[in-house]
Amino acid sequence: MDDFDSQLIGADSDSLQFRDSVPVIATSQDVVAADNGMDDDEEYQIVPPAVVLKAMHEIWLNESAAPKLLTYRSEHVNSLIDQLENMQENIAQRSEAERRSMKCTIHALEVQRITYVINDYLRTRMRKIEKDPVQAMLEDDNRAKKDEERLLSPAEREFAEKYYDASVGLLKAEFHDPLPGVFHKVPVPKAEYGETRVFFEVLEDGVDNMVVPHMQDPLSEVVVALNKGSRHFAPFASVEEFLERGLIRLL
């Protein structure tokens, strides 16, 4: 397998190297060098790019199917963007005749396929932020206070703030300003996602039972066993924690 073939996602000679939770695309030779020169206090996790791409595909589908914004997966997005840049640079360095070959065409199609997955994932998140920027920023702030994984990327946070400011400014200029001051408060309705039902599949063994409200008696609850491979239709609030932990996937 030559260097050009090794750029293709899924090639055995490539791997994805994580250092301090920051992913770096590396070849097998780089991995060996890193292992030989690794400090005792540093931890590395080597993951093939094909595995990262498969995980990114699942993250994309989960985001598309979820009724609310999920945690931003920066490590997967950044890793694949780095790999895409490497592949695009490799294609650009080929001669015109080589770029017309079947091999190069397959590489170009792979680049387009991965680019679409990443772009649609980001577009889906932007649409959700536009729908409820206030709630997205509040949840992001709450996670920051608890030192938890942030909901938004820095770019998404900036977009949410600018989008909210622009929306409020337009509302005030076109509607609120002519009214008395008592009417100048901007209403912020809170979207409710908990009762929205989703289809999902259990991915792991040993997942805790799910508790869902009884359909006919609001004061009662039903306990549902979550066996690996089983599929269910339940309120999103009942499965959100399982989804964030990677124990299920949305369908």
Q: Bin the helical content.
A: 40-55%
Number of domains: 3
Strand content: 15-25%
The number of distinct helices, counting runs of at least 4 residues, comes to 9
Helix and strand sequence? HEEHEHHHHHHEEEEHE
Using the coordinates above, name the CATH class of the largest domain.
Mainly Alpha
| CATH-derived topology of the largest domain | Methane Monooxygenase Hydroxylase, Chain G, domain 1
CATH-scheme architecture of the largest domain: Up-down Bundle
Please describe what this structure looks like.
- With 251 residues, the chain is α+β, with helices and mostly antiparallel strands.
- A 3-stranded antiparallel β-sheet has the order 2-1-3, sandwiched between helices.
- β5 and β6 form a beta hairpin.
- The relative contact order is 0.10.
- Helix content is 51%, strand content 15%.
- It has 3 domains: 127 residues, Methane Monooxygenase Hydroxylase, Chain G, domain 1; 48 residues; 54 residues, Ribosomal Protein L9, domain 1 (3-Layer(aba) Sandwich).
- The protein contains 9 helices and 8 strands.
